[in-house]
Design a protein that fits this description.
Blueprint: E1 2-6, H1 10-23, H2 25-46, H3 52-80, E2 88-92, E3 96-101, E4 104-109, E5 115-118, E6 122-126, E7 132-136, H4 144-155, E8 157-158
Parallel strand pairs: 5-8
Antiparallel strand pairs: 1-2, 2-3, 3-4, 5-6, 6-7
Helix pairs in contact: 1-3, 2-3
């Protein structure tokens, strides 16, 4: 069993939320298509096949989409969730994962989670494709991070 108290670091949480958005298949496809569209409009503008206004609009679309996924969405989610300001205690064991703060606690069996991924500073435990919980790696001291990773691998499919 692994148990530890932790708080969230805002900058690292924002980075983890960006990682979540960028790793989504539909967002990857949309970004690739948007980049192809932007490159195609640049080529067509260079070849004088489209007007400067059309090129400017396509560039603006690309810029707005990147701002949305990189800044607006992660910050909006961070501000809406009170969880990121709490001091939490995480507990991992063979039965599941538990979270506790000063208001109460909650325990989930491993079967509740569909998949998990690892980002540079967090373990992302997904309930479904849109709902997830992040646990900071720094919540685990020494080799406990490696042991937690092995525990997650045993009980939850890796995305």
């Amino acid at each position: 069993m692994y148990s530890s108290y932790f708080t969230y670091n805002k900058n690292k949480v924002i980075q983890a939320l960006r990682y979540h958005f960028i790793s989504r298949k539909e967002i990857k496809v949309m970004m690739v298509l948007l980049n192809i569209f932007a490159i195609l409009s640049a080529v067509l503008f260079y070849m004088k096949k489209i007007s400067p206004l059309a090129f400017l609009i396509s560039s603006f679309l690309w810029f707005v989409m990147m701002l949305m996924f990189w800044f607006f969405l992660p910050n909006m989610i961070y501000k809406r969730s009170a969880t990121f300001t709490d001091k939490l205690r995480v507990e991992l064991d063979e039965e599941g994962m538990g979270i506790e703060n000063n208001l109460g606690s909650r325990k989930w069996e491993w079967s509740t989670f569909s998949t998990w991924i690892e980002s540079p500073h967090f373990f992302h435990l997904y309930f479904n494709s849109r709902s997830f919980f992040i646990i900071p790696k720094e919540a685990f001291a020494g080799d406990d991070e490696h042991e937690a990773r092995k525990l997650l691998n045993r009980h939850i499919a890796r995305a």
